[in-house]
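Hi P.,

Sorry for the delay on this. The queue was packed all week, but I finally got your sequence through. Input first:
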Amino acid sequence: PGGLRAAAIATSWFAVQADYRGATFPVSFSLPPRGNVVVVAAGNEALPGVPLPAFTGPTLALVPHPADPLSLLLVVGGRTGAEAAQAAVVLAGSKEALAGESAVVQAVRLPQRQPYDAPRWVRSDRPVRFGELVDPSELQAYGYAPGPIALPFRTAPDLYTWRGRPLPVNLNYRSPPGPIMDVAVSRLDVALNDIFLRSLPLREAEPIWPLNLLYRQFTGTERQNARFGLPPYLIFGANELQLRFDMRPLHRGDCIAVPADVRAGIDPDSTLDLTDAYRFTTLPNLAFFVGSGFPFTRMADFSETAGVLPDRPTTQELSAVFTLLGRMAAHVGHATTGLEVARPNGLPPVANRDLLVFGVLGRQPALNTLLRDGPVVLEGNRLSVALPDALEPFRNLFLGDEPRQQRDQAQALLSSPGEGAGMLIGFESPLRSGRSVVALTGTNPAGLEAMLTALRDPEQLPRVQGDLAVFSGGRVSAFNLGRHYTVGNLPPHVWPQFFFQTRPDLLLLLLAVACAIVAIPIYWALRRRAATRLRTRTT
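Then the structure:
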């Protein structure tokens, strides 16, 4: 496990450098004949054809490739797997102290990360200036109909606001001065992730003379201010706020030239504010996982995550591990320095962590333990849909028959998944409530690789949703089968809103109880009054 942890940290660091370009990590148990190679080694036993240095502690070294003079070997090693992991941590977090071709490094303790403080995530404890997201020069527009100004930002998708209130944006922008534009039709269009939100006027129409002189003196005409909101349900892991100037020249007659080189811009002091949102959501949601790695990326160093691998992982399984972890590390901008690696019989020590489970069906015994309360159950080397709970028929009276239909469709697909089918499964950990498990598996190694490839396909990626995604027949099919659970915190006054909007059965029960509370005292009072009236008549 120490050597595997070292490899995971080193590969995730490379993935952070690659960023949006992506990175894959083919794994070999022998030295490839050519190309640059990362070698993870523990112990001083000689490896055939690999010129390793003598390990006297955690070691990082660059040595020539013995078969390819144009390539190098980056050696991450030590006398034990734990020392190799320490060397990988130094590579990822303390590169300033490295020099030369080889170094025996000292174990370092990186600063403790806080939830949601990923280097590449927009801050949610204060308003964030546009100038912090992009270079101010990228906020300028040239011409009457320039291309959109894009402000990319990343965050965790677990944003929740009271009654779905939008998250405020305070926008300052400038338009060309003087009587150049037709202010009646010129505008600034605002979109989020290619979804149109609203249009803003570039400039307000000036009053007639001589009031326009006072208007210019006290208000100015160049800089405009607008406030609008971003709907929380449109904010995912990776987002892009798009601002597009659409300026129309003012026609002032054939004998008057129209300026061709006009400019407009967004003020870098404009702000995006996520402080009004609570961090709370319902899981499992595989769309959150494939879009931002949530909830595993809640801690940027993955200090609340453990990877569960088979006892003897194959090269395909290890490649899937490193590629998927690298994808998530690139999203947050930090290597997986806090990750723990566990084997199937070592689950109790990592029970308080979120678990990433890798392995082909039949080779990963941990699935037998973890899937006991999941959306599917493992029967030998096959998956089948778990039986519904006793209250599901009652809930279906209010929610419709869609849950049963999804269950039948999933069962039909799992009964005959075909050759090379891959699965991604999300559910709550049976070892600790509130913790998440995501399992990447397949009917064979080809299925595992096919599912991982689908996660890099822009066409297939949006189809990964719910708690079960199956890649079979060249496409992804997603289902929502199991129980849901919540992560995060809400203040007491917001809980009723969330609780009853998802539980119409409890809302109906509460209505019945309220009616009984009101009706029983009234009924008792009326009966007592009737009895008193009858006694009076008898007397």
